[in-house]
Sequence to fold (207 residues):
Amino acid sequence: MKKNFFIAIEGIDGSGKSTQIKLLKENFEKEGYKVYTTFEPTDSEIGKMIRNIFSNKMEADHKTIAALFVADRLHHILNTQDGILKKLAEGYTVITDRYYFSSYAYHSVHVDMDWVIASNSQSAQLLKPDLNIYIDIDPEISMKRINAGRESTELYETLENLQKVRAKYLEVFEKLKNIEKILFIDGNMPTEIISRNIWENTKKIIG
Fold:
C-alpha cells in the first residue's frame, strides 16, 4: 500500500460509522500508519451553525443547509490548522466520518440531486477519497439504535427520512460508480465481522 490515504466512511445515522472508524484506525496503525480521524459537520463556526439547525435552535431552508455543508466541507479540506489536505501532506492517513456523498444522499431527498452534486464540485475537484466505504443498514435498525442512545433526535432522524436517504445513497452510488471508488459493506452483521470485511476489502482496493 502507498504511504497514506484519504478514506470517507458513509452511511445513514445509526449505521455504526463511529465504531468502524475507530476499528479501521486501529487496523491501519497496526500496519505502521499514522492516522487522523475527523468528521462532518466539523467543529468550525460553520459546523456549529449546522448543528444548531439540526437541534432546532435555528431554522433554515434545505438549500441553505446544503450550502452550509458545502462551505463547511471546503473549510474542512483547506483550513491551514488541521485541514484534510494539510494532514495528508504531513503523511497522515485521514479517515472522515461523512464527506460529499452524505450531502448527495441527505440533501437530495429535499432538493435536486444534480444541484447538490454541482454545489460540491469544488470539493470533489480538490480532494476525492481513495475509497468511499458505505455501511448499509436497515433504517428500522438504525432508528432503534438512535432512539436507544439519545434523549432527542435531530432534523433528519426519522424512519421515513432515513429510508429515503438510503435510497438516495444507492441512487447516487450508481450514478457515480465509474468515477468513484465505492465499497459496500453489510452493516447488519456483528461489529467484528463488519470490521474484518472493511479491512480486508480496503486492503484489496487501495493496496
Q: What stands out?
A: Strands lie at 6-10, 35-39, 93-97, 131-136, 182-186. Residues 62-78 form the longest helix (17 residues). The chain has one domain: 6-206.
